Model the fold of this input.
Amino acid sequence: MSFIIRQLKKYLFFEEPEKRERFILRPGARPADEEGSGSFEKAKEKKKAESEKAPEPGDEVKSDIDANLTHMKDVYSIPVNSDIVLREFDITYGCRTVRAFIIFFDGMTNTEVINNYILKPLMVDSVMPLKDTAENLEGYVMRQLMPHCQVNISRGYKKAVEAVNFGGCALFVDGLSVCFTADVKGWDHRGVEKPNNEIIIKGPQEAFNEVLRTNCAQIRKRLKDEDLIVEDILVGRVSRTPCSILYIKDVANEALVQEIRRRLEGISVDYMLDAGELEQLIEDSTVYPSPQVISTERPDYTAELLVSGRVAIIVDGSPNVLVVPITAFDLMHSPEDNYIRFPYVNLLRYIRYIAGFLALLLPGLYVAITNYHHEMIPTDLLLAIEASREKVPFPSLVEILLMEISFELIREAGLRVPGPIGPTLGIIGALILGQAAVAANIVSPVLIIIVALTGIGSFAIPNYSLAYSVRIMRFGFIFLGALAGFLGITVGLFMIGSWSTALKSFGVPFMSPFGPKTSGRYKNVIFRAPEWKMEERPDYLNPKKKRKQAEYSMKWKHGKRKGEQD
Amino acid sequence: MKRTVVYLRIGCCLLLLIMSLALSGCYDQREIDEMAYPLAVGLDVGRANILRMTLQLAAPLSIGGGGGGESGGGGGGAGGKPVSVITVDTPSIYSGLNMVNNVISKEINMSHAKVIVISRKLAEKGISKYIQAMMRGREFRPDMFIVVTDDPPDVYLREVSSVLESNPAKYYELLLGKDYSSYYPEARIADFHHAIERLDIEPTAVLSGINPKESVEEIDMMGKTGEHYLDEGRYEAGNVPAVSELKNVAMGTAVFRGGKMVGTLNGIESVCFQMVTGRYNHSYWTIPDITGSGNVIVMNVVQRKRPKTTVEMKDGKPYITVRLDLEGDYTSIQSTLEHEKYPEAIENKTIEVIRENVTTFLRRTAEEFDSDICGLGRFMKGKFLTWDEWEKFDWPSHYRNSEFNVEVKFKIRRTGLIIRLMMPELSAAPRVASGSVKGGWLCRYSHGPW
Amino acid sequence: MDKRIRFGRWEAIMLITNLICTKVFLYFNRMTAEDTGNAGWMMAAFTSAMALLFYFLVMSLYGKFEGMDILDIAEAGGGKVLRTITGFVLGGALFVLAAITMRKFSEDIKTISLPTSPLSYVMGFFMAGVIIAGLLGVESIVRHNAIVTPIATAGYIVILLGIMPNIDVTNLLPILGTGLKDILMKGFYRTSVFAELLVLFMLPPFLENPGDARKVGYVAITASSFFFVTGSLVYTLVFPYPTSMEPFLPVFNMARLIGLGRFFQRIESLFVFIWVMSALVYLSTVFYFGVYTVSKAAGLKYARPMMIPFAIILFSAAFLPVDLLSVIKIESEIINTWGWAVTFAFIGLVMIAAGAGKRAGRGTKGR
Done:
């Protein structure tokens, strides 16, 4: 009841409209963005402060080892929790023997490392003549006794527990009110394999895997730039999923990076497990059919996008990396575009655009033409279609919906059919099914071709999410075509166009560089210029450095060789 | 967040509503197989009413072959005529469509009609009102062909059959909208409609008819005149010496003044009509041999440039000069003439033949028909500055007193695959009757290919 | 950072050109043929020249008001009263344009493609597009304009090129058509075809560079005049004079005649795409600016809540003319005869009044 009253009030009385857009990334050369400038320095200081923060009062590590033992057993529900290991041992130095214990998860840690590089030195090598006094046991253990490359000191339980939860081990020593944490991750994971979804012919065949640092390394080894910043953020109150923001410090726009930080830090969920979830939590419009971030599993493509001034977000546990911001035309680019020659890449681009057009509009146009615009069909074709439709009992709209829905069913089922039949089931199955339907006079033959072309067109779209959205919108166009012919389809295109131009992806207008006209329209949007002509970064990203190639990037062509005469 | 969900719910309800609406079919939604498509429309003077309208409907099952190649039956497809003809007597075209819709199960859709066939009787009464009705309707295409026949259209449309194509629509398109110039003009409704209302050009239509010759004996009975050979263009549709399964013959032009038909032109005159209007592509001309031996020389004459026309008023009479610019290839030389020795003679003979035909044609339009079908008035328009002056001048009243001067330029370019014939009788080559002679084959090259 | 909505020069040029040139798709060719016979193209050229002259005169009064739109200028000149009057006059003019154009386009579509659908059904589609675009805001409208206008232009040029085999040069004769007097007199009145230029005077707060407003106007008028002249020229070449006054949709008839061989015929339905897209963009722009002008004149801060009520008003207003012939009459005799009074004369007067008031200042920010 109150819901209805609220709705009525909303329509009858005036309410201040809420602000929609708060972040706008403007193209063009602006020396310093007021919002963004200095945000890198601020972030640096913030990180530093965080790491040096003193722990809260109830959280400090106590120097009494029994108290620590009790606390840790409590926190980890030992002995109910079966895979946590708590190993007590003694460290001897000088003439004293000090109790210590180490706690870690079995299966998540590399026990070789723990044995050889933490326990062994502490237990065995500590029987060495001590050079310093007892007060510096902390420094002694840390700096001389644990030959492990990643050891941290923490004064609070919280950090120790976090470290242990993610494959580390925590070392408590009697008498020291600090705890040592070491990163000994060692679970089984997939190696670096071939990409599954973004298959190209010419180019590297490495893909991301689920380990965050491996993924960061894949990108770093391609860029080798000390200005490539990998900023860690933990997302999720409980899952504490490590995510990394990657950007090149002297190229990416600071306001953009600040906005991404803001969005990531502003997520308050308990568990955030995958890049797909993160995408939905940070994107601008949930309902808009097309994706507003690129989700890729190729490190070479990610490196290319970073170089042009974009920002990448890697989520631990997910082989997909999100890259923002993007425009509508970037969704039709394939990772291979940089590696193949100029004539082929343009041909392929046009084929992709034709494929997108077919996948989106062909069934709708068919319905519109056969129901409303009969004069458009050449007479021969018209009579042939009429002859074939004589025996079919359904109206053409129902026919095409039947075939489209069956095609979608086959596609979805083909994902789950085991073995080698699975991938082939898709189109071949649809065609055979269609042929059988034609023989049974349920559909007319022209329709099979239309549905097959539509399906093939949607497979040719490089971006997986965009292909999904095209499949959805296609049904909308079928209905609009059936309602009012070309008028309906055009109104549909107009609505999609209006919505697209109103949308922003992280502050960049979605239809740049045609929506708001910016430079670089003919370099890489629809028509791709040759590699030596791609001199500037996209204007709509407002990068710090515009140029990425010299004007004559092929110096061997211009200028004289030694000994050449005029 | 909640607001988005509410909007989504409302949106979904609206969407379901729209989808159910779409499935049930909206106002203008018509399936292809709910409509019947006439391919040709015939108009005649009616007996029971003002107009007798005939529609030649396409029967897709016979044309399309029944679709779905593997359907078990396969029957019902191959047999049967590709068209079905219906005739009604009605006060006007659209009233006729009303009546036809009561006979035919499917709704009539005129957007694929290719031809309008009009009987001569109706044409002589005047057809501008029907043409105007067709231009007003959105379904009639402005590039339909317009044909006039002597036979009544209902007989004509029943006799027309396409043997070489499965689709009568294709037959009409190929026959009437062609690339080479044959003995009838290209006449479309849009031009017809414009020409009715214009002062400077009059409309024309294609003349067609059913060739009644059933067997070769009937051709024998057509007889010959005293000439050695008969020019093949001198016939009009309906009495052409040809026998075939295809009963339809198109030959000649129907000449109109305003919306009324005033006469016909035969085949060769239609070719001259196309030449003067600049729509001539190429065709074969049969020239009597310069040796006078009764043989013929056949030239493939092509238009090189559009003709230049000038009109001047001399003593209140229009003096019209038409300059045709043609070129040609030898296609056949039947006598044993060493043609490469007498190029100019042959050219002159051709020029003479063409000029004579064109002048006769033009005089006929002026004196006999008083109808400026070539649109020579268009070249007079430039002499006036404003439209009122042009209207006051009233060109149609001046046209009948016109004098014509036709100049033809013609050059022979190529000879086909044979350059010269080496025949034994060449040593006794006959003398040439007229024209200057430049001997030797060197001279042929001095003409040049331009 | 400045949160104002801004767009650049190119978008503004595309916006104004699309607004002015949409009538080429509708009735402009027939109108010039009715006025001056086959000298329509000369009248189009003369009209464009006159419009440039008027625009120059008005813009020379604009000198000290850089960055202000016409409502701010009115306020500077005569206080709130003048601003309200100006806003309502201009907003009302835009509404009339939108209503008549929507009615005209719906009648067109009804004639061409959907003969038996009721008019409200066809108009409902246009309204849906207009409302959605209005609710999404001016940024979306302007950017959409920038994308659609080049496509519509390309389609139009394709029609003009495709019809080339059918032209007959003698259709241009006699050269002066119905007489020089007609060309000059009617050409003067027909500067009303540039009536949509008044949107340009609402744009300066939105432009990135306020001094661009002048250039935008000149470029837009020049580009539109190119389309007017070529459109009239080709139409006159294809259709001879008395019959060129007949058709209801001249460009549609031209597109119907395109036939290159046996296959490339019957493609006029493809041009329905371009026309409808052009129409939707035009309607959404004119409607949005109408609502915006009226809201700003009435001193309202937000224009978005007014969209839906005004859309309903627009829908009803579009039904006011009783039949098609009265629509055509209103178009030729009222809008295209007196539009120049609103765009050039009225705005010029306001500027003169404001100049006399001598209170120039910074314009209020656009939304």
